[in-house]
Amino acid sequence: MITESKKTRAHISKTLLVLTYTLAILGIYFVAVATYSPSSTSGASLLTHIAESSYAMRQGLYVLISPLVLAVMLSIKFELLRRWNVMLYWATLGLVTAVWVFNRATGVKQWLDVFMGYTIQPTEFAKLTIILRLASVLSKAERPLGTFKDAVMTIALVLIPGAIIVLSGETGSFIVIAFVFLVMIFFANTDWRVIALLITLVVLGLLALYGFAMATGSDNYRLLRIISFFRPEEFSSSSGYQQTQSMMAIGSGGLRGVGGFSDSSLYRLDYVPADWTDFIFSTIGEATGFIGCASLVLLYLFFILYMLRLAYYTRDRFGMLIVVGVAGMFFFHILENVGMTAGLLPITGIPLPFLSYGGSNMIMNMAAVGLVLNVTKNRSLTGNFSTPQLDTQLRHYTR
Predict the structure, then answer these.
(1) pLDDT band (50, 70, 90) for residue 391
(2) Nearest Cα to 264, choosing from 246, 249, 282?
(3) Which residues are 115's β-sheet partners?
(4) How far is Cα 118 from Cα 112, in angstroms, rounded to an integer?
(5) Predicted TM-score (pTM) of this structure
(6) Which of 39, 247, 299, 352 is the most exposed place for a label (fewest CB within 10 A)?
(7) What is the per-residue pLDDT across 81-133, written as a single tens digit (0 to 9) for each?
(8) Contact criterion met (CB below 8 Å) for 375 and 319
(9) How far is CA 53 from the centre of its chain?
(10) 112: helix, coil or strand?
(11) Nearest-CA neighbor of 352 among 294, 287, 280?
């Protein structure tokens, strides 16, 4: 059992903020590199290259407004998160449903227009509200999912929005939510047999989804992405083209990379389609080589483990599960994105946190960090701490 110490005190983690903005600033740089054009001024400064890239400028704008997002998240009283999580969950579910209905009528996919070409992606924010709702439900149960009724009610919290998200064409986001759910119930002290059963059901559900797509021909691109992963040589010019090109770009970086804004690079030729978004890791691999990729992965690893450390020293069970859920969400995003760009996992369209271009992605990531900071800022030294399972699992990473 953790006793009161400096590690459990209420505070805003400066370390987490430094890690977050280090990644965000790297994101601006690599978006500029990915969108570099050989027509750019030769030998120009870094700021000039960024200014010449409309995508890098927009990414910079998202980073500039991110402190406002953090301030809003920190200004919310922690007790209100306990009370409002139900309302936030249903509000987000309603928004995701509305977007799905609107998309079916107009043919527009997944995004809502805001103004001047800027859009938002509601499924990104659904991840956070689902984490809040799950943390609330799981923190109140001594043995979560211990009865059939509890299991059905808890799983429904994920499956209802998950079904709508899948129907909207966002299978990748549903997989993230499913992974976060498994992580949270694991650290909430759920019986391991229940977890094993759920993992089996998730795998069977995904197989059934793609089997249905293959049988009906609907959304067949999802199935082709899976097939092209196992048989890349047959689909290198079609559904597997982007992944094949990405692997070649990463490989061309060698040990140290070709450098940023290089006229001899593949990224200047748009060798990998849309390599400033979901496939930005291919640009990072070519520009910085193995050393740069390994350094970035280690930075991400420290980012995740530091959040788990914050979770370990959070006595309030609701707050602890929020931090664990956010850490699980970031972990899967990183794992899947790096894996798909390197040809180790199938393509799902999941962005790389803080580095991939995108306003909804950046704002959601910052809101998630703000949620973690809200927990550490409002730590309860007299609250009910975690679970024995969390204490055991995290001890190895936080000493």
Answers:
(1) low
(2) 249
(3) 118
(4) 9
(5) 0.87
(6) 39
(7) 888 899 999 998 988 888 777 766 444 456 665 555 556 677 888 999 999 99
(8) yes
(9) 25
(10) strand
(11) 280
